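Work Package 3 (structural annotation) set out to generate three-dimensional models for the target panel prioritized at the project kickoff. During this period the team completed the workflow that converts sequence records into discrete structure tokens, so that structures can be stored uniformly alongside our sequence database. As a representative example, we reproduce one entry of 122 residues exactly as it appears in the project archive.
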Amino acid sequence: MNIHQDPYMNFADMGPEEMGFLQQATGELSEDQKRYFYMVYSSKRKNANEILIFTLLGFAGVAGIHRFVLGQIGMGILYFLTGGLCVVGTIVDLVNNKSLTLKYNKEMAYESHRMAILSNQK
């Protein structure tokens, strides 16, 4: 099977919400733009299991690493200095790690979409 026919095969942990979002985002793109989109998106996309592991490191005394990985530098510093907001923030993020990852991946999809559109305008 060709990657351009079913590009979602590369993302083993992709949920239905993310898949639907990507199908909608790439609907009006040409084949070259879709190829470029998936190349860029796959390099920026985060795996929910990796974010879960980074969140668990908060209990080992390194709170906030998951926020740094997700590009939330201010929250990462706050978590680091307050011990994961006294561990409560780390517990909340542990429960919500999939939604944090989905939010990040959607932002990266928007960014990748803009880059794909601009790739053929040169």
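The mean pLDDT is 88.
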